[in-house]
Amino acid sequence: MKREPKAGVLALAMNLFLDLRNYQYSLSVVEGLRIHMEMGHSYIEIPKNSFNEMQKVVNASNEHVISIGARFSSEADSHLVCFQNEEGNYQTQANSKPGKTRTVTGASFVVFNGALKASSGFIAKSSIVEDGLMVQIPPETMESLRTALRDQTDFQIPCGRNDGGEVREIVTVRWVDLSSPVNTGITSGVDGRPLDGVRSVRVQQDTEFESDGRTISCTEVFYQLKAPDSNFSSVLSSCSVFQKEMALAACSALTPHLAVLASSGINSLTLRISTQADMVEYQAGCGGRLLPQRYMNELDSALIPVIHGGSASVPQTAMDMEFIFYITHTI
């Protein structure tokens, strides 16, 4: 993807997320966390049962930045969306539910940047960056925020100038009781099977697969565990290399066919890999229907070598892994 470099808050956001030494992009997602923005007030709501996940994010963050991915909030009547126009510029807009007045807007992530200097003239600043929220705070406020997150206590950040004037906005981090199921309304692209309550992880692919002006990438993997005593975190840890190799192999197999797939109306597809002791099966589909056999033949050639000779052993846990792939145009 070739375009001129962009300046401003977009560049600032990317600098916060990018690890230029290791060429990685990362944004940890805390299950159930949601961001609600209202007039004069923004709320970062963290489920109490996601305390351990939140601690991992805090402990893995660097001294000045804590960045957290959020889930889509069905309670918000609009949601921030970032898109790239034909000129290559990024734009942000709020998409509203039909017939709804926009009062609560959801966001996809929040970044706490603890490098705000006293000379800036602000006690804290909040702003929209792409489809997320950035909160700039002084170092001492960042330390207080870390303590609140570790102690599972609520925390308020008044935003405005430090001249004693009126507070323009308050950002509140609060712990809430949430019992709503994850991934509500999601169905499998293979056969339409409901995935309500099935936990998933977002994927940032570090290898680009491009052909005929289109790219394919794996963006999310659903884990449907079949044994009641299976631990989700342990499964993720043991499957990370296998997950990566299977996703890359599938992308490699389908890359030569991106133009044909897109012209057939297939812009997203699902690969389901079912595992248990001494058995691996897989299917691929789109919109609840299996892919034509010619694409399955291509997947056979790419996936079977990984299953039998990859650097990671096949998981022995009884589960279905559903890989979500998107085909997009390059600009």
UniProtKB/TrEMBL annotation:
Pfam families: SARA_C. Residues 14-307 form the Smad anchor for receptor activation-like C-terminal domain. SMART domains: DUF3480 (SM01421). GO terms for biological process: endosomal transport. GO terms for cellular component: early endosome membrane. It comes from the Eukaryota. This is Zinc finger FYVE domain-containing protein 16-like. It comes from Notothenia coriiceps.
